[in-house]
Write a structure and sequence with these properties.
Blueprint lengths: L15 E3 L3 E3 L2 H8 L5 H9 L6 E5 L7 H15 L2 E4 L7 H13 L2 E5 L5 H13 L3 E5 L11 H4 L3 E3 L3 H15 L11 H14 L5 E2 H8 L3 H11 L4 E4 L6 E4 L10
Parallel strand pairs: 3-4, 3-5, 5-6, 6-7
Antiparallel strand pairs: 1-2, 8-10, 9-10
């Protein structure tokens, strides 16, 4: 029996660690992340949030990239794959905002977490996704990231590594094609790769080339999706003639990868 009847004090909760080895010491974050069962709002939101069929959550360091340039990648992919991207635009400073972000994550099919620059906000959102058991993919531009700051357990994960917006768009398109297939005729692991090969084969029989609308009609896909794929092939098997709406895409064997021409 204890010598007095005072209640045993609750043990101090450990701090929650995110990138750079610094602890986020706020009590509300510690309670929410380490002890989610203590948040009634957490429990209610987890049970009540339905999945949006074609929604993707995106967290990125918005101070690192011009908003217009970065989001242009997602704008074209949204049209091409008939998906909706939801961005985490607010800095997480209150429990209300954190719960709002949680709702976005729970309602999405998966999330893209761009840890370029090892941004604390993106790190927190990635940790929340892991804690919720949600599917998360990491993206990173190595030129803007000190890899030594990234925890070792994250360095070993598969990630979308890019060095340009064009490469970022290409790799995101491949991921979306795998996770959220759009075309029943392209149900292989990588629908974009199949579409690339089919476009090259189609243009091999069209000496004067084809306009983007004709290519889209040939495969029964949206013009936006055809643009995403064809744009990646220019200089890698295709060349263009004409300008703007009159542009024709023509097979250029000399620029095909591994070409001996």
């Amino acid at each position: 029996m204890p010598e007095n009847d005072e209640a045993t004090p609750e043990p101090k909760r450990p701090p929650v660690f995110y990138g750079g080895g610094s602890a986020i010491s706020n009590d509300w974050i510690g309670s929410y992340m380490v002890y989610p069962s203590l948040s009634p709002t957490f429990q209610a939101a987890t049970l009540a949030t339905p999945k949006e069929p074609r929604q993707i959550f995106v967290a990125y360091p918005y101070k690192l990239y011009p908003k217009t340039d970065y989001r242009k990648v997602f704008k074209s992919l949204a049209v091409a794959f008939d998906v909706k991207f939801v961005f985490a635009d607010e800095k997480i400073t209150t429990l209300h905002i954190l719960e709002k972000i949680e709702g976005y994550i729970k309602a999405s099919q998966f999330g893209i977490y761009d840890i370029s620059g090892w941004n604390p906000n993106v790190t927190l959102e990635l940790g929340l996704a892991f804690g919720l058991g949600e599917k998360a993919y990491i993206a990173m531009d190595p030129s803007k990231t000190n890899v030594s700051e990234v925890p070792a357990d994250l360095r070993g994960l598969d990630r979308i590594q890019y060095d340009s917006y064009t490469q970022f768009e290409e790799k995101l398109g491949e991921l979306i094609g795998q996770e959220l297939p759009l075309l029943k005729t392209h149900e292989a692991q990588n629908q974009l790769e199949q579409l690339r090969r089919q476009i090259l084969a189609l243009l091999a029989d069209a000496e004067s080339g084809l306009k983007i609308g004709d290519i889209a009609k040939a495969f029964g896909v949206t013009t936006a999706l055809a643009q995403v794929v064809v744009r990646q092939l220019v200089g890698k098997g295709l060349r263009t003639e004409g300008a703007k709406k009159g542009t024709r895409y023509i097979l250029d064997p000399a620029t095909l990868p591994n070409s001996d021409a």
